[in-house]
Design a protein that fits this description.
The complex is a heterodimer of chains A (153) and B (35).
Chain A lengths: L2 H37 L3 H33 L7 H6 L6 H18 L7 H24 L10
Chain B lengths: L1 H4 L2 H22 L6
Classes of the chains: A mainly alpha (153), B mainly alpha (35).
Chain lengths: 153, 35
């Protein structure tokens, strides 16, 4: 039993699902609800009561998922290979999970950077960008290391 | 027109396209026969 690796993977997945769930809610539900509310002049109500809390939950879950992901990469180490270093440098069999890690890093930067603005319309644009990036992210998280053979990597 | 361009389906198509491009890159980076 490798408890550190198990706990890192468990809570990385928990935080990541929380992050992406909130991310899809932001892009697919909140943005549409806000557009409908704006048509009646009441978008500010949604922004006041939801946007701030939504942004906070997005940032916390993103940071936790990313941090635990970094730790998880190090548990993939083998003799002569540091999983974290080789993934970041896109080396050998660690390259696919490294691509996923870089996508996650870019998405984290967007979540804590341009999405954190009082301009809700701009934040929602960046939420759409993160929705697009989440699609390759999930591919490389699912198949980047543990299940490479399924997709021929 | 604007609404159709903002469709989540466009995001899905773009995301799958990026995935395909990165998959080709990954194939080049992974040593042949590994995985």
């Amino acid at each position: 039993m490798d408890w550190p690796a198990a706990l890192l993977r468990w809570f990385h997945e928990l935080a990541a699902i929380m992050w992406l769930g909130l991310q899809y809610y932001t892009d697919l539900v909140y943005a549409r609800a806000r557009a409908a509310a704006a048509a009646t002049g009441s978008a500010a109500i949604l922004d006041n009561f939801i946007a701030t809390r939504l942004g906070q939950a997005l940032r916390i879950s993103a940071i936790v998922a990313w941090g635990l992901g970094c730790g998880l990469l190090s548990t993939l180490s083998m003799p002569g290979h540091n999983g974290f270093v080789d993934a970041v440098l896109l080396r050998g069999i660690y390259a696919p999970i490294g691509i996923g890690a870089w996508l996650g890093t870019i998405m984290l930067a967007i979540t804590v950077g341009p999405m954190r603005t009082s301009n809700v319309a701009a934040a929602l644009f960046w939420a759409r960008i993160n929705t697009i990036l989440s699609i390759p992210l999930l591919f490389f998280m699912a198949f980047g290391y543990s299940h490479q053979g399924i997709v021929g990597l | 027109m604007k609404q159709s361009l903002n469709s989540p389906w466009i995001a899905l198509v773009l995301g799958v396209g990026i995935t395909a491009a990165l998959y080709v890159l990954a194939l080049r980076l992974v040593p042949h026969g590994a995985g």
